Amino acid sequence: MIFEIKQQHLCFLRVSIVLAGFLALSSARAEEIVGQVQDALGHPISGADIRILGEDGHLGGATKTNESGGFSVGKLNSGIWMVEVKKTSFQDGADRISIVSGKNSKALITLLPVEVLALEATSHAASAPRNSVSVDSGSSDYRMTDRDIQNLPYGENTPINEVLLQAPGVVNDSWGQIHVRGDHANVQYRINDFIMPQSITTFGQDLDTRFAQSIDLMAGALPAEYGVHTAGVVEINTKTAIENGGSISLFGGSNNTLLPSLQYGGSDGDLSYYFSGSYLTNNMGIGNPTSSVTPYHDNSEQSKGFAYLSYRLDPDTKISLMSGVYSGHFQIPNQPGLASGDAAGITNPYYNLANASPNNPYAQSISNFPASLQNYNSLSVNDQQTEQNHYVVLGLQKSVSDDLDYQISYFNNYSETHYIPDVNGNLAFNAMASDVLKSSTMNGVQEDTRYQLNDQHTVRVGFVGSLEDVTTNNTSTVFGLDPITGGITTSAYNIVDDQTKNGNVQLGVYAQDQWKLSNQVTMNYGARYDYFNAYVSGAQVSPRIGLVYQPTNQTTYHIGYARYFTPPPTELVSNTTQSLFVNTTGAIPGQNSSVKPESDNYYDVGWSHQYTESFTQGIDAFYKQSFNTLDEGQFGPAMILTPYNYAQGKIYGVEWTNNYSKGNVSAYLNVADNVSMAKDIVSSQYLFDQATLQYAANNWVNVDHEQALTVSSGGSYMLNGTKLNATMIFGSGLRDGFANTGTLPSYTVFNVGAFRTVNFDPTLGPVELRFLANNVLDRVYEIRDGSGIGVYAPVYGARRQFFAGITKHF
């Protein structure tokens, strides 16, 4: 957090506000209110918001407390005034003050910290549980506030993918990938309602959690305003109630982890600003391909920065600027003891093509490697990958009237992934080496308008459009190959295959109506039109409808239908590319049908109930029928994913959520059961061997990222000023084996932690200390074993790790 709370224990906070009215010459004279905000120990509290309201609700004045906790508001007439005090992470306080000429007025306001907000019936924590249904959209909404993030063992150092793993139906995969409700990826990110362009990075988590006031994951039958990426919508609301101040933090521990970070924010009149930055280095940047404690050749360096500026042009108009930068450098981890050269048994690419014929004249393996590539030490391979992502969003938000408001934004994004191979190492183990750089530059505009026709109807319309330029540079080092014998016939040489596709267009337009049929029933219906034109083109009209029924304030039912449309990720493996590699070790023979957009019918039904102010429970069931089902896989040593389609797919499952928060205790439990299947590979067929193609053409295939049972749970407890916390993730295992017919073993991972604020030195002041143990039981578990459709390398989860951190607020 970016503000300072000068206290030794997170307990009841007493804020004493002393208001003194200056003597007036007459009752008509304007008065000044001065005050002091402090805690129960007498320490001043800076950055508290003070507002003075008249009996009719008009604003008499507003300010913030200074470093000494003091404030003053002038030009107030005698009469009754309401003094409001707001401080992030504390319950609001208020008192009625009578300003009488010639007399002093005093008020004593006691605030409760957020740790006990659940006790209050009027608190936001009680009225908006962590697991809920959005009445506006009818979709499931799982919210994690900055307090929830702080209560995780890693706190604000938690990568955003691991924050999302605490939500129901989110499955963990290698390289930090996540899957929501059985989809491969297809997740949309928004910041303050503005769409974030999709990056092409693979490993890094380019969005940070430090700037988040809350993170919502919405899933299900979404309304028409959400398009393209619809497996889940991650809405990040930034810290906009910004006090003047910041924090500096140092975090580190196992695997040579070092993570310094800085954040600072403040307000100056109508201008608010916030900045955050971090630098991470460790020796476990991607994922361990072995079960060892320390992987081989897995160092990484990752830098992140985020800036948010907002300026209020008038009471109803605000402009904002958001900008983020990410840069990552990764070593690709090595596996010990791999066979090289002739002994590696590298498959002759023409052999699989010939499997369809009863007579197979082709040799199964590539042979005749140079002597220098025989008995090559796999631990000496030096493959690396760099990633970059830079984005800027400039937005205008305007409230024309109580019934009409709109927002419009311009966004720009540059994203780049560069795989840099160890050429000799790749030749020894793969018979080819590809230096691949993919980059994307995107510019776009988003607009959303809300108009409340009357008490029953609220209409929303909008559009988003973008232009993208994509470049793929591929320099492959290969050998000449006799396709019949499988023997290498030439020395290694380079093939350059550079592709550029500029002016890729994507457009989405929507209209929807939120119709309040009664006090208990709300319907959201509408439609959107999506169009894209890139390597392939497509368009679709997608109707949406959702119905929410609230028989009581505690119980909510919802049911919905959505038609979805998802263009394929940017890619190009053309027939020209295939012809370049004929009769080489990099040959890619086989059919190469174009990747197609996916269309879906999505059905969702659910229920949630708030049994008490402290406990909420929900259940949600969903079914998705897809056509040209999109999936992605790694088909070679380059850590870059390639898309392909199944002709049809189906996903169905159920999620059960529980959330409890009362006093010093908070806890949650999410259980998700999921089936995700597809049939008949109909694009990029050259990526697969003939046996897999034939099996998938005649059988339903469990997709490689399916996990039948997923459980996430956690909790925190305040004990004598120390916050104890823990999380647990259970996974029944992803798919493996031929055509994904097998399942990896299940696993359970426990993380535990503790943090508290202490005051070692009066000069230094309070600091926050944090300690945690990751995988505290030191379970060995395998996320991937290197088999399955589109799976190239094994990946194990991290063994037991210990970390500690210190944070100073200023």
Features:
810 residues, mainly beta, 6-stranded mixed β-sheet, 44 strands, globular
What does this structure look like?
The chain has 810 residues and is mainly beta. Helices cover 5% and strands 52% of the residues. The chain has seven helices and 44 strands. The chain has a 22-stranded antiparallel barrel. Strand 42 (782-785) and strand 43 form a beta hairpin. The longest helix is centred in the C-terminal third of the chain and has 9 residues, at 690-698. Residues 1-30 and 112-128 have low confidence and may be disordered.
Summarize the structure in short.
By secondary structure, this protein is mainly beta. 5% of the residues lie in helices and 52% in strands.
Mean pLDDT: 86
Secondary-structure class:
mainly beta
Main beta-sheet annotation = 22 strands, antiparallel, barrel
Q: Rounded to an integer, what's the Rg over CA atoms?
A: 29 Å
List low-confidence stretches.
1-30, 112-128
Beta-sheet strand percentage?
over 45%
Q: DSSP helix count?
A: 7
Please give the structural blueprint.
Layout: E1 13-17, E2 20-21, E3 31-36, E4 49-54, E5 59-64, E6 70-76, E7 79-86, E8 93-99, E9 107-111, H1 124-127, E10 131-133, E11 140-145, H2 146-150, H3 160-164, E12 170-172, E13 178-180, E14 187-191, E15 194-195, E16 212-219, E17 232-238, E18 245-253, E19 257-268, E20 271-282, E21 300-314, E22 317-331, H4 349-354, E23 384-399, E24 404-420, H5 423-430, E25 432-452, E26 457-478, E27 493-516, E28 521-533, E29 537-549, E30 555-566, H6 575-580, E31 598-610, E32 615-633, E33 642-662, E34 665-681, H7 690-698, E35 701-702, E36 709-719, E37 722-731, E38 735-736, E39 742-743, E40 747-758, E41 767-774, E42 782-785, E43 794-796, E44 801-809
Parallel strand pairs: 14-17
Antiparallel strand pairs: 1-9, 2-3, 3-6, 4-5, 4-7, 7-8, 10-11, 11-16, 12-13, 14-15, 16-17, 18-19, 18-44, 19-20, 20-21, 21-22, 22-23, 23-24, 24-25, 25-26, 26-27, 27-28, 28-29, 29-30, 30-31, 31-32, 32-33, 33-34, 34-35, 34-36, 36-37, 37-40, 38-39, 40-41, 41-44, 42-43
